[in-house]
Design goal:
- The structure is a single chain.
- The chain is an alpha/beta fold.
- It has 2 domains: 9-118 and 189-257, 3-Layer(aba) Sandwich (Rossmann fold), CATH 3.40.50; 123-181, no CATH class.
- The protein contains 10 helices and 9 strands.
- A 7-stranded mixed β-sheet has the order 1-3-2-4-5-8-9, sandwiched between helices. Strands 6-7 form a two-stranded antiparallel ribbon.
- Helix 2 packs across helix 3 (89-100) and helix 4 (123-130) runs antiparallel to helix 7 (177-188).
- The longest helix has 15 residues, at 63-77.
Length: 259
């Protein structure tokens, strides 16, 4: 594992430290609405993980490396032990931080992910993005049209198109697709904790009621590693819980942060 890389961050508010970690193909901007609400009471750091957003490109793309990046950021920028809140891949980074003792935490909130191997449902999305040269496009909509046959969900396409930036008059992907492709087996998996490693503090797992990322069969492993965890399921929400049901999501987070 190489040394930690510098992470781009958007910081708002004052108070206790809260660090937000996005999922695969995401960025700090995915949290803007949630961050704006939480910043009324807490100091909220929304990070771009390595190979995403405005953060550095680096390999390997695995959870110990991403956890080390987050720990280095927290040591440098957090005045006190933070609460880590991570969605999907970011949730696995947060769990890795907690289990491996990468950084002292005040709390842990994991959104719609379990400490297990996930099916390669996003692999076709990655392949579609890698097959496209956005520099040939004259407008963003054109890239979306090229993605449509492999990514039929319009909302998912809009999410992916947030990763387009213009440089010297040409569109390009701002995420490191090649490093992500090489790291995909690690991203889909979860590092085996050292024997006896558990996070003994309280933890909140928020799952989408219509999502299959946190199922009943995952709960035994989750409880073994996080014995004081509680699971809250939000009805009428899929994998992007905070986008599907933002009001209920924020209520659960605020309640946990206030404990």
């Amino acid at each position: 594992m190489t040394g930690p890389v510098q992470l781009n961050a958007h910081v708002e508010g004052e108070g206790g430290e809260v660090v937000l970690l996005h999922g695969l193909f995401g960025s700090a901007r995915n949290w803007l609405g949630v961050q704006r609400v939480l910043a009324a009471r807490w100091r909220v750091h929304a990070l771009d993980l390595r190979n995403h957003g405005g953060s550095a490109w680096a390999e390997p793309m695995d959870y110990p490396s991403m956890a080390a990046d987050v720990a280095a950021y927290c040591e440098r920028h957090c005045a006190a032990a933070p609460v880590l809140l991570g969605h999907s891949m970011g949730g696995k980074v947060a769990m890795t931080c907690a289990l491996g003792g990468f950084v002292q935490l005040r709390g842990l909130i994991v959104v719609d992910i379990a400490p297990t191997v996930n099916p390669p449902t996003l692999s076709p999305v990655l392949s579609a993005m890698r097959s496209i040269d956005p520099g040939r496009a004259t407008r963003r909509q054109e890239v979306g049209e090229w993605l449509a046959p492999d990514v039929p969900d319009e909302r998912v396409r809009a999410f992916l198109l947030q990763n387009l930036v213009s440089k010297d008059g040409r569109l390009r992907w701002r995420i490191n697709l090649e490093a992500i492709a090489r790291g995909m087996p690690a991203i889909l998996g979860f590092p085996e904790p050292a024997p006896g490693n558990r996070y003994e503090e309280a933890a909140l797992f928020i799952a989408g009621g219509q999502s299959d990322y946190v199922l009943a069969r995952h709960e035994a492993q989750l409880s073994a590693l996080f014995p004081r965890a509680r699971i809250e399921r939000i009805a009428d929400a899929g994998h992007w819980v905070h986008a599907d049901q933002p009001k209920r999501f924020v209520e659960l987070v605020q309640d946990e942060l206030s404990r």
